[in-house]
From TrEMBL:
<feature type="transmembrane region" description="Helical">
    <location>
        <begin position="158"/>
        <end position="180"/>
    </location>
</feature>
<keyword id="KW-0472">Membrane</keyword>
<dbReference type="InterPro" id="IPR017927">
    <property type="entry name" value="FAD-bd_FR_type"/>
</dbReference>
<keyword id="KW-0274">FAD</keyword>
<keyword id="KW-0408">Iron</keyword>
<protein>
    <submittedName>
        <fullName>Ferric reductase-like transmembrane domain-containing protein</fullName>
    </submittedName>
</protein>
<feature type="transmembrane region" description="Helical">
    <location>
        <begin position="192"/>
        <end position="210"/>
    </location>
</feature>
<dbReference type="Pfam" id="PF01794">
    <property type="entry name" value="Ferric_reduct"/>
</dbReference>
<feature type="transmembrane region" description="Helical">
    <location>
        <begin position="117"/>
        <end position="138"/>
    </location>
</feature>
<dbReference type="InterPro" id="IPR050415">
    <property type="entry name" value="MRET"/>
</dbReference>
<keyword id="KW-0479">Metal-binding</keyword>
<keyword id="KW-0560">Oxidoreductase</keyword>
<dbReference type="InterPro" id="IPR013130">
    <property type="entry name" value="Fe3_Rdtase_TM_dom"/>
</dbReference>
<dbReference type="InterPro" id="IPR017938">
    <property type="entry name" value="Riboflavin_synthase-like_b-brl"/>
</dbReference>
<keyword id="KW-0411">Iron-sulfur</keyword>
<keyword id="KW-1133">Transmembrane helix</keyword>
<feature type="domain" description="FAD-binding FR-type">
    <location>
        <begin position="247"/>
        <end position="347"/>
    </location>
</feature>
Length: 478
């Protein structure tokens, strides 16, 4: 049971030496992590408070008192499920609106998981709302359901638009199922997912024109109009306005394209005033390269070197249409970018000792962290899983010699779906991990790789005694 420590790695055609560290120091270690925890608590409490508030307004308008006969019970319950669905639908949009306070506090991985849970819950409540309202208006008679549905579509303002919005949301939900995602390209899935905004927009007139709970009191009316307007403003500012402003301001362009390994390529970027861009090691950018077909689609690319204020390096594996386009980029190609995003790095850290563990091209953001984090010799350990050859071997060797980084290469293909460390671990991966990193339970752990590997790695670290709040991930999944 032994790892391969970096000793004398052969240098690839172009090697970036360890560069001067340009970390933005924002206070003592752990200050931002504690602040983010408070944001997570406040945001969760705010959502629950909003759900309780709309429930109170529902009851104040006779919600519980209407639970008498079948028809009134169905209608009243339908009103409540509609209110909950609307509230969660707005929360779902805000989760993906790229609000800096949420991006920083949760990170993209956790936001995406919460977004999915909130989205499916909101959709389920929306379906219940439709079924219950139709049943209530039909006086709980199955024979009257079709006629009542037609009357609602034609006689009530905004309901026809809401029906069209529901179809859009159904399409988004169906394509979000795991089985559907496996059959779709990322670019196609992302395009279809944008129909969620259309679905939300089409539902708005129905809720604000005819929804009883939206109109029952001045307070309720002001509340709903305010949160709808605030949500729309968040999307316009953070998803559209800020990316456009930053892209125009910094004027990023390609300087060179460098193969790192078979099927893996790095793209070097430069631009104006890069020191002002709040980019940290471990983060990623959503990029649209303005050349050739597919320039309208954004793809996420991890930063593979610590920002130095002069250039940016992104590295990706060529697996889809977006990453395949990297091979044909020419120097001078301009781009539009969103970000930086991600919490895989110094922001989440409140321990000096860290473990950076990546699989395949998942080592990319960890390579940047190995350069960008502040640590003493022996405080940072890198475990790199790979099948054919390690990435950035010579660069890790420079960091080992200059900064005391400990690097362990773990070659070989995965022996099973639950394999994390590969053949080098022998019969017990947990024993091997504890052997290589004896003080693992006291470290901050950063993981990056494909979803199945990352899930297995999280489980292995938990088994080794690492608390869940000190395990930070970035997954190459969607």
């Amino acid at each position: 049971m032994a790892g391969l420590f970096v000793t004398d790695a052969a240098a690839p055609a172009q090697v970036a030496p360890a560069r001067p560290n340009h970390r933005r120091r924002v206070g003592p270690l752990g200050v931002r992590a504690r602040s983010d925890r408070r944001v997570r608590v406040v945001s969760a409490m705010s959502l629950w408070a909003a759900l309780l508030l709309v429930t109170y307004w529902w009851d104040a308008d006779g919600g519980i008192r209407d639970l008498a006969g079948w028809a009134s019970t169905l209608t009243s319950t339908g009103r409540l499920t509609g209110l909950w669905s609307a509230q969660l639908l707005l929360a779902q949009v805000l989760l993906m609106a790229r609000l800096p306070v949420l991006e920083n506090a949760y990170g993209r991985d956790r936001l995406t998981r919460i977004h999915r849970i909130v989205g499916f819950t909101s959709f389920t409540l929306m379906v219940a709302h439709i079924v219950l309202i139709i049943g209530g208006y039909a006086s709980a008679q199955w024979s009257a359901v079709l006629g009542t549905s037609w009357d609602l579509l034609t006689d009530y303002g905004g309901v026809l638009l809401a029906a069209a919005g529901t179809i859009c949301l159904i399409m988004v939900v169906v394509t979000s199922l795991r089985a559907a995602r496996r059959r779709l390209r990322y670019e196609s899935w992302h395009l279809l997912h944008l129909y969620a905004y259309l679905g939300v927009g089409l539902a708005l007139p129905h809720q604000l024109w005819t929804g009883q709970e939206f109109l029952q009191s001045r307070g309720a009316t002001v509340y709903w109009w305010t949160i709808w307007a605030a949500t729309a403003a968040a999307v316009l500012v953070w998803r559209i306005g800020l990316p456009v402003a930053r892209s125009l301001s910094h004027g990023l362009r390609v300087t060179s394209v460098v193969p790192e390994a078979p099927g893996v390529v790095s793209v070097y970027l430069t631009g104006r005033w890069l020191a002002r861009l709040p980019l940290e090691a471990g983060q990623f950018l959503n990029v649209r390269f303005l050349s050739g077909a597919g320039w309208t689609r954004a793809n996420p690319y991890s930063i593979s070197a610590a920002p130095d204020g002069h250039s940016i390096r992104i590295t990706a594996k060529v697996v889809g249409d977006g990453s395949r386009r990297l091979l044909g980029l020419r120097p001078g190609t301009r781009l539009i970018f969103e970000g930086p995003y991600g919490r895989l790095g110094d922001r989440a850290r409140d321990r000096h000792r860290v473990l950076l563990m990546g699989a395949g091209v998942g080592i990319t953001p960890l390579r940047a962290l190995a350069e960008g984090l502040d640590y003493r010799p022996g405080e940072a350990v890198v475990l790199q899983r790979f099948s054919d050859r390690p990435l950035f071997a010579a660069e890790f060797d420079v960091l080992r010699r200059e900064r005391g980084l400990q690097v362990i290469f773990l070659p070989g293909r995965r022996t099973s779906a639950r394999s994390v460390l590969g053949p080098a671990a022998g019969n017990s991966e947990l024993a091997a991990l504890r052997h290589w990193v004896p003080d693992l339970a006291e470290r901050e752990v950063f993981l990056c790789g494909p979803d199945p590997w990352t899930n297995a790695a999280v489980g292995l670290c938990r088994a080794a005694g690492v608390p869940e709040d000190r395990i930070h991930t970035e997954r190459f999944g969607w």
